[in-house]
Design brief:
Shape: globular
Largest sheet: 9 strands, mixed
Oligomer: single chain
Order of helices and strands: HEHEHEHEHHEHEHHEEHEEEHEHEHHEHH
Structural class: alpha/beta
Helix content: 25-40%
Number of helices: 16
Radius of gyration: 21 Å
Length: 416
């Protein structure tokens, strides 16, 4: 079962944007996100908007590109009617689901169509997520030829029994093969790890991090497992078949990842994300590292983004909206010439400021205090070792390692 969409206000059937709320003068970059909802198997821990069976013309592999580009036509029209000058996309990200359930030709067709409609800035980062079992040397070469610059590989663990608990079907030995193939065709590579799986030991986690480092990727993400209600794993935990993840165990594993990755030449730039440091980058602000995910930074820096696909979210200025979830409903709306948006919201000034703090504080760049921040709590955060003392004296909050483990507490203090 996929998560429910948030409640919101009715969105115009033609997808019209309010120019007064779009804030075009802010000059923010534009990012594009393409949601591909298809998977071979639904993993037991996953609560993303994904599906394993076909849903008819326009809502399944083979015809999906036409539907997505139909929504892209609507998006360009809405931006033009709101008085926006064209903004080439600074980043493009294909997520899911498993984008590489579409063949490389269809992914390339979507990217080409986005380039023709929006434009893609020179040097833009163009990423696709990939399940290790759904790519080949030939498909990766085709993706690089189509203009993709980066592939994010779902590794999760190097330990077979941990992968089995997660319902992951790929073989651990497949991941280094995929990384090597991607390298051979000039793609940057990220690998994603998950820690805290029920039954995973600290030695299991060490093995996974060391295996990821040994592959020589440019970027490693390390996410704590969250057991979501409505998932297969959530039901297993509720029935007592699997133990609930232990926060102290997850903290130990995060500290181990930080230690191992730092020793291997990676630097954290967001709590769960580490980028390989190139020669000469030692003194750079971490969010400017060459191998940091620029698309993820777009979210943390409050850029505009347009999400294409079922369940995708978009954010332009003070307007945010989200598409209907089901691929069949999504394709039906697009083919009928109406917006696939299910609902949306208009963000007030206070909400925007709150989100600025919540997002930026997660990054190594940190956050400068604004009018909503509880300045009286900063001294306590310094005393508790949660934020760096020297920047804090200048009104700039940067998390320590302990602060990264207790980031929710820091944000509550700053915004409460």
């Amino acid at each position: 079962m996929s998560p429910s969409l948030p409640q919101g206000i009715a969105w115009p059937r033609d997808g019209a944007l309010d120019p007064a709320l779009a804030e075009p003068a802010a000059g923010r970059p534009l990012s594009l996100y393409v949601h591909v909802p298809f998977c071979r198997v639904r993993c037991g821990y996953c609560d993303f908007n994904t599906y394993t069976t076909g849903f008819g013309e326009g809502a399944e592999p083979g015809s999906y590109a036409t539907t997505v580009l139909g929504e892209a036509d609507q998006a360009v029209g809405a931006l033009e009617r709101a008085g926006f000058a064209p903004r080439p996309a600074s980043t493009v990200f294909f997520g899911g689901g498993t984008p590489t359930m579409l063949d490389a030709g269809e992914l390339g067709d979507i990217l080409l169509g986005l380039r023709e409609r929006f434009g893609v800035a020179p040097g833009a980062e163009v990423t696709t997520e990939a399940n290790p079992e759904t790519v080949t040397p030939q498909s990766l070469e085709a993706l690089a030829g189509a203009g993709f610059t980066r592939v994010s590989v779902g590794m999760q663990s190097a330990v077979p029994r941990v992968l089995a608990t997660l319902d992951r079907e790929h073989r651990p030995e497949r991941v280094p093969e995929v990384v090597a193939w991607a390298r051979q065709v000039g793609l940057d590579v990220s690998v994603d790890l998950i820690y805290g799986t029920p039954g995973e030991t600290l030695d299991d986690w060490r093995r996974s991090v060391e295996a990821a480092v040994a592959m020589g990727p440019d970027h490693i993400s390390a996410y704590a497992l969250v057991v979501e209600e409505g998932t297969r794993m959530g039901a297993q935990v509720a029935r007592g078949e699997l133990p609930t993840p232990d926060p102290d165990d997850e903290a130990d594993k995060y500290e181990l990842a930080d230690e191992l990755l730092s020793e291997a030449g990676f630097r954290w730039y967001e709590i769960s994300n580490f980028a390989r440091v190139e020669a000469g980058e030692e003194d750079l602000v971490a969010t400017r590292l060459r191998h940091a995910s620029r698309h993820n930074l777009a979210y943390w820096r409050d850029w505009d983004w347009w999400g294409l696909g079922p369940g995708a979210h978009s954010h332009v200025g003070r307007q945010r909206w989200w598409n209907v979830k089901h691929p069949r409903a999504y394709a039906g709306r697009v083919r009928a010439g109406t917006s696939p948006a299910a609902a949306g919201e208009v963000l007030g000034t206070d909400t925007r400021e709150l989100e600025r703090v919540l997002l930026a504080v997660r990054t190594a760049e940190g956050v400068h205090l604004g009018p909503l921040d509880d300045r009286s709590g900063v001294a306590g955060l310094v005393e508790d070792g949660l934020v760096e003392p020297d920047p804090a004296r200048e009104g700039h909050i940067v998390l320590t390692l302990r602060g990264r483990l207790l980031a929710d507490l820091v944000t509550r203090t700053l915004t409460g």
